[in-house]
Specification:
Radius of gyration: 17 Å
Strand content: 15-25%
Structural class: alpha/beta
Shape: globular
Largest sheet: 6 strands, mixed
Helix content: 25-40%
Distance between the termini: 33 Å
Oligomer: single chain
Bound molecules: zinc ion
Strand order of the largest sheet: 3-2-1-11-12-9
Length: 244
Amino acid sequence: MRYAVLSDIHGNLPALEAVLDRLRRDAVQRIICLGDIVGYGASPNECCDRLRDYDLIAVQGNHDRAAVEPGEERWFTPAARECILWTREQLTRRNQVFLRSLPTQAMTPEAHLCHGSLFDPDYYTTNPFEAAASLERMTLDICFLGHTHYAEWFAQAGESRLPVQHTAVMGAVIRLEAGRRYLVNPGSVGQPRDGNSKASYAVWDTEARTVEIHRVPYNIAAAQDLMEAADLPWSMSARLSYGT
Ligand code: ZN
């Protein structure tokens, strides 16, 4: 099976379209989404609608939850709060039901799927110590997570050892070795923060035992124009140019 693994789309339709275009060439059978389909960007409904066209396995991110649960935005920065309040007003009834229906964790036969960690969807997994807390909860050899908007992975050779952290800012090919456990972050489609402004996603091939992380250029100015037209915070559209 070949899966596309997408995370943190954040209502950025030009970025999502660029990734979906690539998926035709990648010959994937299913799409995994690790949450935060909405929030920040100007196209929350379009992003939900486009994903639903596919054979999708998705989990709920903190922005997806806040978009349908008033009060959850109190944890957000002022600019993020402004975006989520706007998003909440835009969402169609159908997409409210869709986002509310998403589980906080899911599994395929081969992998765990979550937003931030295997014990708290809002937890940021940024270093080997934080990664170890999810690795010790795994019953399968691979777990995909998002939330930090950094493309990277952690590999653990033995249960008693700290995992090794590898960056994938420019893309990567991960060869999954028997006897090791992996925590893989495919990076963010719609708001990368790892210094590379290109959209990030992964292709996971369960037979070849590889995960490829790809970076795709997209029309950033188009995403910024949509945000400006929606009167969303300037700081949130400006950061797309820099991948921060
Ligand atoms: Zn996010």
